[in-house]
């Protein structure tokens, strides 16, 4: 997730871009850059810096831009290529500059084609192809805007693009698909572009939130929008007055926003990694799995729950022996490590001290390593031999939501990749798995009325003497995650338990003041789990059942949809558990985004 801003007008452009990027820093900040072109001087000045916006500010301190002109700026959250200055935006060709948020899925094909025509690429990004493709088309198409239109037609994937070119000095060309782009105009004839409304609040009263497939051209005092070759007039919407509110994109809390974002980030996680019913993980060595007979998954906190979930899939689907380790335990247990094990470290931040140390131990013992991580260039990413970025974008809520979702999705892809190599699935079975994984973004969309329903029933759970979240198979780690979410932000005592284990002790706690959250998927062990829940009902426990099948015995019930794969049920139930924790925390008046005693990134032992 990156942030982009653009400006056409007479004010000092550098300041507008820097202020705008500062507002978008929450979308990612591993590097940033800007390009500015003034009307009387058709030179394009550009600047790039690694790290936060303050570094770009420092780089541009001696630069001013007066008079009418155009400017574009970008803050980056790396998905293709390391966060270096070369990979920072804007990317440039011979006389044009581009900034981009999203992923160009077919960039490899475009790149190969352009390389054959003699183009030399500087960066490792997918973005750079846009600017060279544009300049290449402009060799035969004399109208720059038409060339831009043809460029956009060739792009597959998600993008918000701003492009400026000396071939048309007054204009910004723009295009939008699957990621946000907002355009605003004001009475001073200024034109403003942004990924979210925060940067333009105070500079315009309303804005146009573009639909997918919209592109166009803007110059001082004038913007034209097109879709499928026809001019359109997007509706205007009033801008919010409060910046802080705008950063949360209308949500009250970052955690809430991040729950709602899961569908979009899941699309990014999958993008470019699934083609023709197969998983393509181009980022990892082709021979990573050569000689591997065992997998060790290692992590902390929520990432540990992603590891536990994946362990079921590695064994069932890829028929590979898998162990899961809590990083802080692994460090000191003098583990026996064999070279035929692949060590997979899972971490949102890439900085968790215990996971980092565990990874070092694995590496020092000569194991192949893979990091599943959300933050490029983090310590864990730098250390591991292979890396898969989860592409969740910056996660602000301390209680992890979208990072977990993207970790599980990424691990599921690794499982299918391995299953393909080891031929543990028939072609048809693999096709079905891929079909199911592609459904996940849609499943993660919070349905209308769900949060309201959870809000209403959450009032039943403010007292009592504790919670048991129960499930079987992958729904056991999901139960653990549901319990962790709740305790992190509600400070109520909650445990996740394997349904079948309740009878071996915890059932002694059951009475009408003990809450059981029962996960009852239809595609895996329904009858067995149901029997376990009935044992709790029989002892007068308070039961909240989540299932696609009606369950009359429960006190509260949420009916999930009729999915064909248990992992699809997993993701649907995950959203319910996240919202459940959120609603209880809100009712209790807690600080949802910054719960007491916790930290987002734990860099100490
Ligand atoms: C902290 C966070 C948790 C997170 C855990 C592991 O405890 O509060 O939300 O799951 O660290 O973090 P990592 O960045 O390694 O996934």
Automatic annotation (TrEMBL):
Domain Glutamine amidotransferase type-2: 2-221
Keywords recorded for this protein, A-Z: Aminotransferase, Glutamine amidotransferase, Repeat, Transferase
The UniProt record lists the keyword Protein biosynthesis: no
One GO BP annotation of this record: protein N-linked glycosylation
UniProt superkingdom: Bacteria
Transmembrane segments: none
Annotated SIS domain residues: 284-424, 457-595
Molecular function per GO: carbohydrate derivative binding; glutamine-fructose-6-phosphate transaminase (isomerizing) activity
Any Pfam family the entry gives: SIS
UniProt protein name: Glutamine--fructose-6-phosphate aminotransferase [isomerizing]
Species whose genome carries this gene: Campylobacter blaseri
Gene that specifies this protein: glmS
């Amino acid at each position: 997730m990156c942030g982009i801003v653009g400006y056409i007008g007479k004010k000092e452009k550098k300041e507008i871009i820097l202020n705008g990027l500062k507002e978008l820093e929450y979308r990612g900040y591993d590097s940033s850059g800007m390009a500015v072109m003034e009307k009387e001087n058709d030179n394009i000045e550009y600047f790039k810096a690694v790290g936060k916006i303050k570094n770009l500010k420092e780089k541009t301190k001696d630069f001013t831009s007066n008079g009418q002109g155009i400017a574009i700026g970008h803050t980056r959250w790396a998905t293709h290529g390391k966060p270096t200055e070369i990979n920072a935006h804007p990317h440039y060709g011979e006389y044009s500059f581009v900034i981009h948020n999203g992923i160009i899925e077919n960039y490899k094909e475009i790149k190969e084609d352009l390389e054959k025509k003699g183009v030399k690429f500087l960066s490792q990004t997918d973005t750079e192809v846009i600017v060279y493709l544009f300049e290449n088309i402009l060799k035969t198409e004399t109208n720059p805007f038409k060339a831009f239109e043809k460029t956009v037609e060739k792009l597959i994937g998600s993008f918000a693009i701003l492009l400026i070119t000396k071939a048309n000095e007054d204009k910004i060309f723009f295009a939008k698909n699957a990621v946000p782009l907002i355009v605003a105009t004001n009475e001073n004839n200024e034109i403003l572009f942004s990924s979210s409304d925060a940067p333009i609040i105070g500079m315009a009263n309303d804005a146009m939130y573009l639909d997918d497939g919209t592109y166009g051209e803007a110059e001082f005092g004038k913007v034209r929008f097109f879709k499928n070759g026809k001019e359109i007039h997007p509706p205007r919407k009033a801008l919010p007055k409060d910046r802080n509110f705008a950063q949360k994109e209308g949500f009250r809390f970052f955690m809430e926003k991040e729950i709602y974002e899961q569908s979009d980030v899941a699309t990014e996680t999958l993008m470019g990694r699934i083609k023709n019913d197969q998983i393509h993980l181009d980022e990892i060595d082709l021979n990573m799995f050569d000689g591997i007979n065992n997998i060790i998954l290692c992590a902390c906190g929520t990432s540990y729950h992603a590891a536990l979930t994946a362990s079921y899939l590695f064994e069932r689907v890829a028929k590979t022996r898998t162990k899961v380790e809590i990083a802080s335990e692994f460090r000191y247990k003098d583990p026996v490590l064999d070279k035929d094990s692949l060590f997979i470290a899972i971490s949102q931040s890439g900085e968790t001290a215990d996971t980092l140390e565990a990874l070092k131990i694995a590496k020092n013992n000569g194991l192949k390593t893979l990091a599943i991580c959300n933050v490029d260039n983090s310590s864990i990413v730098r250390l591991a031999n292979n890396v898969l970025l989860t592409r969740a974008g910056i996660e602000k809520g301390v209680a992890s939501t979208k990072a977990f979702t993207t970790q599980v999705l990424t691990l599921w892809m690794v499982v299918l990749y391995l299953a393909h190599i080891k031929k543990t699935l028939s072609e048809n079975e693999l096709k079905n798995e891929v079909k199911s994984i592609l459904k996940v973004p849609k499943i993660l969309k919070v349905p209308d009325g769900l949060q309201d329903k959870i809000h209403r029933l959450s009032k039943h759970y403010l007292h009592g003497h504790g919670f048991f979240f129960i499930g079987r198979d992958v729904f056991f780690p999901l139960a653990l995650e549901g319990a962790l979410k709740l305790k992190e932000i509600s400070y109520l005592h909650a445990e996740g338990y394997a349904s079948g284990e309740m009878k071996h002790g915890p059932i002694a706690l059951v009475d009408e003041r003990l809450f059981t959250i029962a996960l009852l998927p239809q595609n895996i062990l329904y009858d067995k789990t149901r029997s376990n829940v009935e044992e709790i009902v029989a002892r007068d426990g308070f039961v909240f059942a989540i299932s696609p099948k009606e369950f009359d015995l429960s006190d509260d019930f949420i009916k999930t949809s009729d999915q064909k794969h248990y992992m699809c049920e997993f993701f649907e139930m995950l959203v319910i558990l996240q919202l459940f924790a959120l609603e209880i925390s809100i009712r209790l008046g807690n600080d949802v985004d910054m719960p007491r005693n916790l930290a987002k990134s734990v860099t100490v032992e």
